[in-house]
Amino acid sequence: MINSNTPQWISVGQLTHLMKSMVEPLFKDVFVVGEISNFSRPKSGHCYFTLKDADAQLSAVIWKSSMIKMKFQMKDGLEVLCRGRIEIYPPQGKYQLIVSSVEPKGIGGLELAFKQLKEKLAAEGLFQPERKKAIPEKLRSIALITSGTGAAVRDFLNIFHHRSRRTEILLVPVQVQGEGSAEEVASAIEKINRIPIANRPDAVALIRGGGSAEDLWTFNEERVVRAVAASAIPIITGIGHEVDISLVDLAADLHALTPSDAAARLAPEDRGFDKQLDLLQQRIHRAMDRMIENGDRNLKRLKSISVFQNPEIFLIDRRVDACRTIREFLQRSLDHFIEIKEKEIKSIAVRLNALSPLSVLGRGYSLTQKEDGTIIRNSDQVSVGEMISTKLSKGTICSRVEKRGEIK
Q1: What is the C-alpha to C-alpha distance for residues 140 and 175, in angstroms, rounded to an integer?
Q2: Are 384 and 358 in contact (CB under 8 A)?
Q3: Which is more confidently placed, 311 or 226?
Q4: Average pLDDT for 18-36
């Protein structure tokens, strides 16, 4: 007969697993606040630390897969908010908090990460003004790193082309937010810097439209900031709205407030070319006015000479001699005057002719167009039988396409 008071013996493992089955379901999603201590991150990539307050302490672990998502650096003494689950670890007979997400208390994770990385890079001198390069005044080509679609690239190109069409834009499409975007942006900057110097763009524009702090975080990633700082080509940034400041803005050679502002700062003024033409035209008008004024003064001076007012006071012979002398003098003066003015006008005309597209035609080139005015650059643009016109230096030739092909 079994005594009912006889104790029921169970093993340590049985008790531990019993507790595990009862405790873990009750604490499968808990929120715990505490201070980090004994923080460590071995080569495995997992993080181990103790979460404590004035009354108790709790062992905690963050697996490598969760650590990858974290932006800020964890360290001893930092008070944090942890979300996770309680797990009992039978081999050691203790329980621990398996952390799935963590935020610093009193400040956002992204804000803390921004502050930590800013202090680190500033200490290395990456933001110092003396290391920044000047953007060239005359830009032959610009590499534009941004998303291939969206408002930012449209705004940049519209503003730039409205102000200038003499600079080549090389669009380098990249992912500007989300997983892998930082690697794409940094890699694009590094590849552009590896282009041979003869073909290398004169500047790089790194732009992105507005968004949340999470959307813009790519431009606060350490690899991207270091790529910007290390670039041998001057870089201008236009990230987000006017109030947005990213770490790449601090490292860039020139910080524009928006993508549109970046385009305005880079675009040269074609209007300077128009001003030069206007200036030459004004100089021609002033030269002609001076010629007319001088001619009028000379005419008045000649009229005031007594020989023209009272020719009868001179003898016929002397009159003839005087007239001949005066005529020769006037002729020489007028020839000399005309020679000087012709040289001035020719000099101005040479400069104007150098600016005229017709001078190119004068050297034997021609301009061929379709009937709708489209300029023909290769034979694939026309069809057999189609009418075309060829503009020469003097005159225009209309012809019909009989055959087309490439020059061998």
Answers
A1: 26
A2: no
A3: 226
A4: 86
**Terminal Cα distance for the chain, rounded:** 114
Number of H helices, E strands in the chain: 12, 13
222: exposed, middle or buried (Cβ count in 10 Å: 0-12, 13-18, 19+): middle
Q: Tell me the C-alpha distance between 143 and 122, whole Å.
A: 27
Burial (0-12, 13-18, 19+ Cβ within 10 Å), 203? buried
Phi, psi of 74 (to 5 degrees): -85, 145
- Residue 84 burial (CB count, 10 A): 23
How many Å apart are CA 399 and CA 136, to the nearest integer?
46
Looking at residue 390, its pLDDT comes to 87
Tokens standing for residue 278: 């206007």
- Nearest to 216, CA basis, from 229, 206, 205: 206
Could you tell me which residue, 4 or 19, shows the higher pLDDT? 19
C-beta of residue 366 within 8 angstroms of C-beta of residue 392: yes
- What span, in angstroms and rounded, lies between the C-alpha atoms of 202 and 30? 55
Q: Which of 150, 147, 137 is nearest to 173 (CA)?
A: 147
At 163-190, the pLDDT tens digits run 777 788 899 999 888 888 899 999 999 9
- The predicted model gives 59-86 an average pLDDT of 82
Q: Which residues of 147-158 are buried (b: 16+ CB within 10 A; e: fewer)?
A: beeeebbebbee
How sure is the predictor about 232, in pLDDT bands with cuts at 50, 70 and 90?
very high
In one-letter notation, the amino acid at residue 209 is G
CB 252 within 8 A of CB 208: no
pTM greater than 0.70 (yes/no): no
